[in-house]
Amino acid sequence: MKNTKTGGKSIVGVVDKRACCGCGACSVICPQSCIEHVYGEHYNFPKVDTEQCVDCGKCLEVCPSAFLLNGTDPGFSDEPAKASFDCYLIHSPDDSIRLDSSSGGFITALLLHLMNKGELDGGVVARCNREDVLVAESFIAADRESLLSARASKYAPASSCTVLADVLERPGRYAFVGTPCMIQGLRRLQELLPELQDRIVLTIGLVCAGMASREGTRAYIEEQGGVNMADVRRICYRGAGWPGRFRVFGENDKVLMDRPLLGGSLDHVVPHDHYLRCWNCLDHWCRFADIAVSDPWTDEMVLNERKGKSAVMVRTERGREAVASAIDSGDIAAESITIEEMLSYNKHLVIDSKHPRHGWMAGYQLMFFYRLRYLWTVVWSLLRRKRIGLKTTLKARLSRKYYC
C-alpha cells in the first residue's frame, strides 16, 4: 500500500477540505504530540497545534483520506483473486454472546477463543462512553467482561487508531477491529512503526456503508422517540436477537425507547449524515484486513433468522488460521458460502465502473478543488440520472461548522 504524497505538509488540509474520516492515525504518528483528537457534535476530527507543528508530513503519510487532496485514486493495489477468499456464515454457540451481538457474535467469540488459547492478550474494540452516551470510545479489551461490553454495532463516529498509542506502550499481541478506513490507517502506521506489526497480529474489518454522525442519533432519539437526551444513560444500537433492536435506557436501566432496527434506526440513523469522506470511499470490503465481517442481508434471513449469523470473508492466511482454530475447537459454528453469496449480502457496496460512487467523487473534486477535468463525469452521471451526492457535497462545502 503506497503512501500518498500531497501538496501540503500537515493534516490541516485534509480537515479543511472535509476529507477526514476521524480514524485518529495522525495523532499516533505525530512526533511533536501536537495533534489533539476532538469529539465534535457531529464527527471526530484532529486539531493541530500549528505553533508546535514542524511540518514533518508524517500525519499525511498515515492518513487514509489524503489521496483526495490530489484526485480520486486511492492508490490501492489490484484486489487479489476473489476465489482465494474463504467465506462463511458463522455464529457463536453461546447465546449469551450471540443474542446481544450485531449478527452472530463471531468477533467476540473469535477474540475470546484466541485469548483463551494465549494467542492474544486483548483486542482494540469500541463501546459507548458512560459519560457521553453519544460517543463511541475505543479501548483495549483484555478479558471476557470488557469484550462483552463492546458487542454490537455503534452507529456513531469511532476513532480506533487513537488507541494504538496505548498498544505501543504495553507488551502483548492484540487484534484490531475497525472500519475499512481505520484498517487503512493502521496499515500505514505499521509501515512507519514496525513495532506495531508485532503488537497488532490480527485485523478484523467491519464491512461499512458509511459512519453516521452523533447528531443523527440525537435527532432520532429526541424526535422519533420523544426522549430528552438529558435522561439517557445508555444506548444499544443493536442486540436483542437479529436483525436487532435500537434501545435507549435511563436511570436504573429504565427503557425509554425500544424500536426495531429494520424500519427504525436502520432507516433514520444509519444511512444519514455520514462523513463526507464516506461518500468518497472505494474500500467498503476491508481489503487490508485479515478478516471482513458483515450482516447477511437477504430476504430469507430477515424472515427466518432470529438469533443472528455473521457473514465472514477470510482474506489472509493469518485470518484462515484464526478462524480454523475457532471452528475446530467448537467455539464458533460455521457453514461455507461462496464469494458470490458473500458479496450479494451487501451488493450496493460492490464498486464497479457503473457505480454512482464515481460521480459522487467527481462532484467532490469539482466543488472543493475546482478541478474541471471531473466536470464531464458529473454531467454524464446527471444525464444517466444517477444520484451523485451533489446536495450532500454542497452542504458540506458551505458549512462553517461541519465537524462540530
Task: Characterise the protein shown here.
- The chain has 404 residues and is an alpha+beta fold.
- The protein has three domains: 82-211 and 274-349, Aspartate Aminotransferase, domain 2; 214-268, Roll (Nuclear Transport Factor 2, Chain: A), CATH 3.10.450; 352-404, no CATH class.
- The chain is 33% helix and 17% strand.
- It contains 17 helices and 13 strands.
- It has an eight-stranded mixed beta sheet. A three-stranded antiparallel beta sheet has the order 8-9-10. A two-stranded antiparallel ribbon has the order 1-2.
- Strand 1 and strand 2 form a beta hairpin.
- Helix 5 (106-116) packs across helix 13 and helix 15 (357-369) packs across helix 16.
- The radius of gyration is 20 Å and the shape is globular.
- The two termini are 32 Å apart.
- The model is unreliable at 1-7 (pLDDT under 50).
Largest sheet: 8 strands, mixed
Order of helices and strands: HHEEHEHHEEHHEHHEHEEEHEHEHEHHHH
- Poorly predicted tracts of residues: 1-7
State the separation between the terminal residues, measured CA to CA. 32 Å
The level of helicity is: 25-40%
Radius of gyration: 20 Å
**Number of strand segments:** 13
Kindly list the characteristics that best describe this protein.
404 residues; alpha+beta; Aspartate Aminotransferase, domain 2; Nuclear Transport Factor 2, Chain: A; 3 domains; eight-stranded mixed β-sheet; three-stranded antiparallel β-sheet; globular; disordered N terminus
